[in-house]
Amino acid sequence: MSVTPLDRDDLRTRVSAALRAHLHRRRGRLALVGPELGPVADALADFLDGGKRLRPAFAYWGYRATGNPGSDALVRAAGALELVQACALIHDDVMDGSDTRRGKPAVHKQFEALHLAEKYTGSAARFGTAAAILLGDVCLIWADEMLDRSGMPADALERARPIWDEMRTEIMAGQYLDVLAQAQGGHSVDRAVRVVRYKAAKYTVERPLHLGAALAGGGPELTDSLSRYGLPIGEAFQLRDDVLGVFGDPAETGKPAGDDLREGKRTLLLAYAAERATPAQETVLDRHLGDPGLTDDGVDRLREVLVETGALERTEERIRALTARALDALAAARLDAESTDALTALAGAATARKA
Amino acid sequence: MSVTPLDRDDLRTRVSAALRAHLHRRRGRLALVGPELGPVADALADFLDGGKRLRPAFAYWGYRATGNPGSDALVRAAGALELVQACALIHDDVMDGSDTRRGKPAVHKQFEALHLAEKYTGSAARFGTAAAILLGDVCLIWADEMLDRSGMPADALERARPIWDEMRTEIMAGQYLDVLAQAQGGHSVDRAVRVVRYKAAKYTVERPLHLGAALAGGGPELTDSLSRYGLPIGEAFQLRDDVLGVFGDPAETGKPAGDDLREGKRTLLLAYAAERATPAQETVLDRHLGDPGLTDDGVDRLREVLVETGALERTEERIRALTARALDALAAARLDAESTDALTALAGAATARKA
Predict the structure, then answer these.
(1) Which of A33, A289, A354, B16 is deepest in the core (most CB within 10 A)?
(2) What CA–CA distances, in Å, run from A183 to A177, B250, B283?
(3) Per 3-state DSSP, what percentage of chain A is helix, strand, and coil (rounded to 5)?
């Protein structure tokens, strides 16, 4: 196969072009407010240049699964998901105090650097935070606009709106659960699973699939089938992300090694480790997890605990089982060959061992 | 007159009821995600309990100005503006590090207090900030939903959408200009006027009026008339807000005296003062403005400079002139007697010397 799953139907290229076109129009709007808005538009364009376009791909194939052909309007509507995701990531990096995203300084760090370079007065960090909060807000607003002006028919948009709304509330609720879990500390498998479900599984896979199906007027039977495929793949995707966050190659993840451990993210991987940790291993977890000054050596010790407790292997096993369950559901759904083929490939891409 | 301008047609009561009903439905949605979301829903309900409902009132009367009668659907659509405003204020307080809003702890301070009370781990301030960022995002999302599900006809919503979108981009752009102005320091009358225009004038008055008019299908002539009335009133509203921020009674403004001065807000009031300051007065401005540890004594000295340079009187004069210009434009618009009467009264309410 010469194209990757995300490139089928030239989707990645087309989504990127649609985002650029949307931003270009909006940049003109910002320029009317003042030339000072230039850096805001630039930062956004730069940020949106990255990204795997995974959510648009699920939305696109959710639509195609109804048997309808794709269109540029559909690509634009699906592309709007990247702007929701941009808001989530930009705000997430502020909340976590993460300095790096997609191999570049996080947005708040970029504006902090602008403050320093221009020798502005007051706190550079506070300026960076403020700019990133506003930039995230702008992404959320422009996402809406991009969906709305995608060129999809009014009745299609009306069907899609409730899903769009649910999805956006769910992701913010999931993020809050995640922040709360970090603050509450401890390791609960049940809680970790719920965070994964809302923060990622529904939002990354199931809701985009539903959005696409709703745009095409797909019925409840299709929606259910897509859930049976989408929820396990979404969960597997997040578990893979958690594994890569600890064991991944920084050159591939775009984040420094061990960042998730430094932030003290309460992942299922860690909940599994805590369940089977010896007292000595527990001490390692307690001492190092969430330590902002965690060294490479500390990262290595935590990794050892994750391997030795079997947590890594259990997580990998769960990813395999979830993926298998999703593919069974997909087969049972009896979609057309092209959609089945595309969704099978997407399942692989979403859960692959490389970022 | 027994009713205040904001209470005509029972508007304040009805907007508050519409917001409560919307939040109640959404609270049910959050509960499905988990009981941990309770504090989020509570904080939001509490926050939205306050507010003068100024923006909904302008939207409502923008609609009524077309000669069409009001409705509950209209009240819901107009009420959505309060949720946009809630997002702006909650995020603004994080960006400015303001501890108080509407006489109560700011949202980020409330969640910081929750963190301390529950003895969570990690930084309480960081937790408060994260929760407030997410809560603001939720407001922005629910605003959309409230407009969309207001019950206004689909064609009305389609006409209103572009204005809704422009307005939301403008407010974020205006906020960025404001943050940037604070960081750049200095006192430019031109820049202060531009911040006022985007951050407040268009967003608080003109755009709500346009939104209402568009929902009713008002033509370009009405839209222009509403701008000629709305832009000066919006500017006057912000200037009044700036004056109250420095000279207002904390019991009325809901903010500690001198908070705006401590934050170093670059208002027109201060730009006027800088224009006519003696070297000694300039020193007072430079020394005290934006000083987080500003004492009551420092606040008094800054107030003296604002009075002695004539900045306060110039600002009051500008508020008077803008209000007069708006009322002239309103008279020239020849709307029906009831709308003219209501908009005249609203002009007074928006620029009154009491908060």
Answers:
(1) A289
(2) 10, 34, 45
(3) 80, 0, 20
Phi, psi of A105 (to 5 degrees): -60, 140
Contact, B282 vs B198, CB < 8 A? no
How many C-beta atoms lie closer than 10 Å to residue A76's C-beta?
23
Residue (of A95, A259, A269) closest to A177 by Cα position: A95
Strand ranges (E), A144-263: none
Q: Residue A307, by phi and psi: left (phi above 0), alpha (psi -120 to 50) or beta?
A: alpha
Model pLDDT for residues B2-25, shown as the tens digit of each residue = 467 777 879 999 999 999 999 999
- Unique residue bearing structure tokens 């769009």: A164
CB contacts of B137 in chain A (<8 Å) are 87, 91, 136-137, 140, 172
Cα angle B307, B204, B5; round to 5: 85
Dihedral angle of Cα B7, B12, B14, B16, to the nearest 10 degrees: -170
> Residue for token digits 């000295």?
B301
Copy the structure tokens of residue A263: 């932030």
Structure tokens at A28: 């003109």
Candidates A173, A204, A200, A201; CA nearest to A81 is A204
Q: Number of Cβ pairs closer than 8 Å across A and B?
A: 156
Q: Extract the tokens encoding A171.
A: 């992701």
Q: Which helix (H) or strand (E) holds B228?
A: helix B220-247
CA atoms within 13 A on the CB side of B337: 0
Q: Find chain B residues with C-beta within 8 A of A86's C-beta.
A: none
Spatial separation of the C-alpha atoms in residues B13 and B49, rounded to whole Å: 11
Q: What are the Cα distances from residue B148, in Å, to A322, B131, B164?
A: 36, 26, 11
- CA of B1 to nearest chain A CA: how many angstroms apart? 40
Q: What is the number of domains present in chain A?
A: 1
Half-sphere exposure of A33 (CA within 13 A, CB side): 31
Place of tokens 């979404």: A234
CATH number at residue A217: 1.10.600.10
The helix (H) or strand (E) run that includes residue B105 is: strand B104-105
Consecutive 10-residue averages of pLDDT for chain B (355 residues): 70 95 90 87 90 94 96 98 96 92 92 95 94 96 96 96 94 92 86 86 95 97 97 95 92 84 89 94 93 91 96 97 98 95 95 77
Q: Are B208 and B174 in contact (CB under 8 A)?
A: no
How remote is the C-alpha of B72 from its chain's centroid? Answer: 23
Nearest 5°: phi and psi at B193? -65, -40
Which tokens in the block code for residue A173?
């609720």
Does B180 lie at the interface with A, CB-CB under 8 angstroms? yes
Chain segment A148-202, per-residue pLDDT in tens: 999 999 999 999 999 999 999 999 999 999 999 889 988 888 888 888 888 888 9
pLDDT digits (tens, 9 = 90+) for B24-77: 999 888 888 888 899 899 999 999 988 889 999 999 999 999 999 999 999 999
- Name the token pair of A189: 């498998």
Q: From CA A102, how far away is CA A81, in angstroms rounded?
A: 18
Cβ distance A263 to A288 under 8 Å?
Answer: no
Assigned token pair, B133: 């960022």
Maximal CA-CA distance, chain B: 62
Measured CA to CA, the distance from residue A252 to residue A240 in angstroms comes to: 13
Task: Evaluate whether A137 touches A125 at the Cβ level (below 8 Å).
Answer: no
Write out the residue range of the structural domain in which residue A165 sits: 5-351
Residue of A94, A179, A265, A289 best to disrupt the B interface, most CBs of B under 10 A: A179
**CB proximity under 8 Å: B 32-51 to A:** 33-34, 36-37, 40
